[in-house]
Amino acid sequence: MDRTVKETEALTKILQTLFARLPVSVEIKGRSYPAKIVGLKDGVYLLASLPGKSDGEKTRILFLTHNNHFFHGVFTVVQRNEGNGLELLRIQAVKVSEAKRAQGRVDLEGGGGEPIVLTNIINQLHLRRSLGFIDKIVEGILQKHSKKMKETYPDSLIYFSDRMDNRLRIMYNFEQSIFVTNRLERSSGGAGQNFVPIEEYLKLLALNKIESRFVSEISVLIRYKNYTPLGYVQVLSDRPMDTEDYNKITLFAAAISRDVISSGFFQESKERCMAEDISRSGLGFFHPQSIFFSRSFAVGEILLFDLQLNQELRGTYRAVIRNITNTDKMFRIGLQFFNLNSKEEEMLNQFVDSRLGPGEGSQAPESDVQGSGPPSEEGGGAAEGSSSEMETVSEEVPDMGFEGEEESV
Q: Cα–Cα distance between 362 and 266 in angstroms, integer?
């Protein structure tokens, strides 16, 4: 049943409904790594942030699984930023085939040892939507932290909203904070490759002007458990700020996130759910029927949850729902991990290594390719300004309507 799609209209539909919205991987030297799709342009171009340094590849292989099908996309590299891994890719063809499980799993049913428990489950899309209904408790938390920040940084603010302004959007797309020591010094005013490039920052100021007396800015994302952005903390200064300032402002952002989550504002599941099996790429768990389940669980939706692997290994994970099966008493949900934080990925590998053996059950062996570098654009490249022209990637995941049963994850 393998088939290859080359028609432009069909390729555009696949890009819009799958590659721009589902977890995507890239093949590098025969190994697979997570890729971040930043935007979609003209129906046939993807702007992608890819891991590691480029070897001058002229083509890229991106792939994903959906509804029991494997989508293998062949792309031409049109433009590239050698420094930070941002590439503009044009789709050439997509091969569609039946998806098959290739990784070993740790079966937890009937075995000894501690159970794996999922708690505080929340739908990522609902998490963002809830920011549009901030209550008095959250307002009080924001006001408290704003007052405390202004004692040290008078020209500061907290942006906390379900809507992305231009500053939040650029930090989200680049997955970096803004740290500009002196905006008047284009060549040396940025704080390095770990932050939004000063060229992009100056483009932002062309749209959102600041008072001329300010020369330095630090803006740090407020994240839900180091994943989904909730807003940001912004500090402006008429003097160059340094690393000490950045560390203080980062602590402010972390404290805001912690206090908002602790307030119970986000509607997380109260269930303690037991996992049935787990691998390096996903897991299966059981959840009872409830109003929360009906509202939050659907194939293609993205979940965030706390996962306790054992007494020592516990973290927050992100995964997409691949299938839902109705058992006699509860529903079994199959998940696929994607774009995990390095700490959680290391814990997961440590656990699987302890149960299956080092490296066993891996889809691809380890590589010296570094983690995904933050995307940026070269000042004189043809892709300059393309991020502002790109469509915002939706977090909603539609069903493509292919026939066939869901793959058991």
A: 35
Q: Is the pTM of this model over 0.85?
A: no
Boundary of a domain, candidates 217, 238, 262 = 262
Check whether residue 20 and residue 79 sit in a common domain.
yes
- Residues 291-334 pLDDT 10s: 888 888 888 888 999 999 888 889 999 988 888 888 878 899 99
Kindly state whether residue 398 falls inside one of the protein's structural domains.
Answer: no
Contact 345, 51 (CB under 8 A): no
Q: What is the pLDDT of residues 366-402, one digit of tens each?
A: 333 333 333 333 333 333 333 333 333 333 333 333 3
Contact indicator for 387, 42 with CB cutoff of 8 Å: no
Q: Dihedral, CA atoms, 342, 57, 74, 23, nearest 10 degrees?
A: 10
- Please provide the DSSP assignment of 186-212 as one string: TTT-B--TTB--HHHHHHHHHHS---T
Please say which residue of 100, 119, 148 terminates a domain: 100
Three-state secondary-structure class, residue 274: strand
Domain range for 227 is 135-262
Two structure tokens written together for 253: 């952002």
